Each structure stands twice: as structure tokens, then as C-alpha cells.
Amino acid sequence: MRRFLWPLVAFALLVVVLAIGLKHAPEKGVIKSPLIGKNAPQYELPDLKDPARTLRSEDLQGGWHVVNVWGTWCGECRVEHSQLLAISREGRVPIIGIDWKDDDAQANAWLASLGDPYARVGADRDGRVSINWGVYGAPESFLVNPAGIIVAKHIGAMTPEKWQQWSSEFVHPAAAGAGAP
Amino acid sequence: MKRFAGLVAGLLLAVTAGAVDTTPPLPTPELQQRYYAMTHELRCVQCQNEAIADSPVGLAADLRRQVRDMIVAGKSDDDIRDYMVQRYGDFILFRPRMNLRTLWLWAAPALLLLAGLIVAVRVLGKRTRLAASDVTPLEDEAGER
What we know:
The complex is a heterodimer of chains A (about 180) and B (about 140). Chain A has helices spanning about 1-25, 75-90, 105-115, 130, 160-170, 175; strands at about 45, 55, 65-70, 95-100, 120-125, 140-145, 150-155. Chain A is of the alpha/beta class. Chain A has one domain (about 35-175): Glutaredoxin (3-Layer(aba) Sandwich). The N and C termini of chain A lie far apart (about 55 Å). Chain B folds into 2 domains: about 1-95, Helicase, Ruva Protein, domain 3 (Orthogonal Bundle), CATH 1.10.8; about 100-145. Chain B is built from 5 helices and no strands. In chain B, helix 2 (about 30-40) crosses helix 3 (about 60-70). Chain B is rod-shaped and about 75 Å long.
């Protein structure tokens, strides 16, 4: 009897390990940002809509912000655009755009024709600021709390579900838990 | 002929090298060597299975420029690795560093080898004992016949 026990235990362990691996398989393609829980990286960018002005990381302090990295060359960015407009219409959390390696004129034309969800947009023409934010594929969105700390990151198009989750989990945790003792 | 072959090989190398990496060369061969090593050690996070040295993707070019800038600014290789890991996570390194989270990765081969050895020793030990105990009855039977 005992000679069957050890192989059985080993097999059971293997099943557990593989099951954990399978469960996490969908997250494998997404790299969790090590920036979560840290201060938003320092940046200084020319304002896309008014190049005489400058966007600074200090602007992020004092309220919740979504920092959205996009570009007119990015197909998924067009997909998420309506959701960004919806967030901006809600009017509770301003969206700061980082226009990643883009042409200023094209970016302004995009905002003029599709609508402008951004409170402000920084033009990251050479991509250095985006690298500093650990960005590897647009669109990427960061949720920054009033202390200027990144609390969440979403890679890919922003969805109503994701925004709902961010709102209830981080921005308005009290509203979600209302009614609970 | 040999010289000619060498020239062709050299040119081909230059072509393949130039095809992807258009970052301007560094001022000294030592720095260029470090740049070469560093860009082969960092993963292009967008394409995931290429080093930034070999990837034609725009992000890889930007990361190469970042490596070059940091080398020129006098940063050490560890500074560059730290910079990348702080932004992109351990995944950006092709050779993961030893820390609490990656310890199992480094320890697993040794542990598996140890487990295999233990099993092998036990199985072999059992066999020898079986063989030793088998001998006598067989001989007895032979003797009785």
C-alpha cells in the first residue's frame, strides 16, 4: 500500500502546482507594474493643446487623476475613446493624457474630431516620459490618488467594467460599501 | 580567398547589426561593449521573447537609447538594471535576479536533483537487498533438487 502512497502524493502536488499555473494563465501576458504603490514618476511635458504651458507631475497632487497614455497611431486607443469621454462627462476624475511619440498636429486633429476627454495632455514626443512610467504598449491607464501615488494600472482599452471597479474600489470606496454596518 | 570570405562575413554581420540597432555608437570600445552586453540582457517587454538589441519595435529602440544615455551619464550596469526593474519588473531581465520571489526558481533544479537522488538511492538499495535475499532460497532449491 505504501509504495503507491508517495507517487500519489507527488502526483497530487503536481496537480496543485499546474492548477495554480492554469488559473494565473490569463495574467501571464500582462506584466504587473512595479510602480503600483509608488509615487507617480516625475515629468515635465509641453502641453499639447497649448505648447506655451507645461505639465508637471506636481499637478497630479490634490485629487484623483487618471493618467492615460495614448497616441493617434494606436488602434485600441480609438476603441477606448468613448469610455474616456464617458469618464470625463462624469466630471469626477480628470484624465491627464500622455500623447506617446505622436505628431502634435495629428493628435490635436484627433481630439477635435473625436471629442476631447482630457483635462490636459502632455506631448511626450520622444517617448522618454512614457519609459519612465514603465509603459510598453498603448493604451495604458494609471489611477493616481490625491497624494500622487499610483494605486492601479490598466493595460489595454479602458472599459466601463474596469472604470466601475476603479471607482468603487479606490475613488469612492464608501459609496460601494453604503448600507453595510 | 580567405580574406574575401572574411570580408563578406563581416559585411553580412554589419548588415544584420545595422538593420535593427541604429543607436549611435558610444565613444569608447569599452562603453560600446557594455552597451552591447546590456541591450542583450534586457527583454523587449512589448514582444517578450526578444532582447531589446534585436527588436525592431519602437519601444526597444527607446529602451536602447535609455541604456546608451545612462552609460554615457556614467551609470553602472546595476544602476541600469535597477532603473529598468523599477519600471518594468523582474520580467525585463532575461536572467532573473536572486530574491525572495525568484528563490524557488533558482532552488528548483537543485531540489529536483536531490529528490531524484534520494529516490534512486532508495530504489537501488531495495534492489540490492532483494537480490541478496533472493540468492539463498534459489541456491537451497537448487541444492534440494
